[in-house]
Amino acid sequence: TKKIARVSGLILLLLSSNAYIVNGLLSAYEMPQISITKNTHYPLAVVLGGGMIRSIKEDPNRINLAESADRCIQAALLYKAGNIDRILISGGNTSIGQIKIDESNETLNVKRLFIELGIPEKDILIENRAKNTRENAIFSKKIIDSLGIKSPVLLITSAYHMRRAAACFTKANILIIPYPVDNKKKDTQMGILESIIPTEKELHKLSILIHEMFGYLMYKIMGYC
Questions:
Q1: Is there a contact between 153 and 174 (Cβ–Cβ < 8 Å)?
Q2: What residues contact residue 175 under an 8 Å CB cut-off, 6+ apart?
Q3: What is the DSSP letter of 53?
Q4: CA–CA gap between residue 166 and residue 179 (Å, rounded)
Q5: What is the pTM of this model?
Q6: Alpha-carbon distance 168 to 77, whole Å?
Q7: Which of these, 68, 44, 85, lies nearest to 181 by C-alpha position?
Q8: Among the listed ranges 21-25, 161-165, 176-180, 191-195, which one has the minimum average pLDDT value?
Q9: Burial (CB count <10 Å: 0-12, 13-18, 19+), residue 85
Q10: Are residues 136 and 48 in contact, defined by beta-carbon separation less than 8 angstroms?
Q11: Is 81 helix (H, G, I), strand (E, B) or coil?
Q12: CA gap 161, 26 in Å, rounded
């Protein structure tokens, strides 16, 4: 029994760290990117917080970008291209006592980044109460309604997170156009070594995917989306 357990564990580890397998799972779950033409226009883009800013105290004046920074970068590019009029950054402090400590001040630092990139402060809105995706939708809805926006808004978040986010925003009666960014999958040709050699990077990707799929399932059970 111990031998079977060891062999099974080794096989599971190899499969879970294989780029070809993990990439296949990500390709099946992540929402695909969409193209926006020069003439396409939206009154607002909602950027969901989470992993855009890294908490580092060495230089308090520096904006340290984190793994999901593609969310804010793509929003800035869309604004610069004239595709959106305003940007709403949604996401608050996610600390849970001493269990989870969040000192990134993400919404404020993303706003700082947008201003540094030349986006006028008047076109940057902040929602800093939401602690999860459901609250992102609920609190964003109030701001969108206060602005009198009736047409669809652009929803920007990571591709692996978009299914749950889009479902929550639709549940909140917000008309959205999903704009997935920060793709974890690789859709270009994969080399032989990449397909064979296991790496810890693939384990990390798989853990993100499993966490997100579990979150989506729980949201469905709770009726959040």
A1: yes
A2: 150, 151, 152, 153
A3: B
A4: 10
A5: 0.91
A6: 25
A7: 68
A8: 191-195
A9: middle
A10: yes
A11: coil
A12: 11
* Structure token digits, residue 38: 């020069």
Residue 169: closest CA among 212, 215, 138, 214: 138
Query: Which residue, chain included where needed, has tokens 């009726």?
Result: 223
What's at 94, amino acid-wise? T
| Rounded Cα distance, 157 and 71, in Å | 6
Which one, of 91, 141, 89, 147, lies nearest residue 119 by Cα? 89
Query: Residue 52 carries which side chain, given as an amino acid letter?
Result: M
Q: Output phi, psi for 33, to 5 deg.
A: -70, 155
Q: What is the pLDDT of residues 200-212, one digit of tens each?
A: 999 999 999 999 9
- Residue in this structure with the two tokens 């800093």, named with its chain if needed: 128
Q: Which amino acid is at 92?
A: G
DSSP 56-75: --S-TTS--B-TTTHHHHHH
Burial class (CB in 10 A: 0-12, 13-18, 19+), 107: buried
* Block residue for tokens 């591709």: 159
Q: What are the tens digits of pLDDT across the range 13-47?
A: 999 999 999 999 999 999 999 999 888 999 999 99
